[in-house]
Amino acid sequence: MVQVMATRKVTITLPEEALERVSALARAEGLPLSTYLTRMAEHRIRIEDGLAAMREWEAEYGPPSADAQRWLEEQLARLDTEFSTPDQVAS
Question: What's the pTM?
Fold first, then answer.
């Protein structure tokens, strides 16, 4: 099932160098600039939602134990390694 989202055309202003660089990144992935920027924005939203969830969890249960923190850091390092390889990055 394909989910159709409402869209709206907007005008944004970017510094010339930022526009050139992000346009090059979009071209390298074979995406229109608007699609690339949308994906970047959605990615940031997911990060912010995850951080908010972690703050809520810590407010209720307290910070993770040293063992849990170490495990989390190992998992993040593993994910960083996996996703730093271009052919492994999900679109």
Answer: 0.69
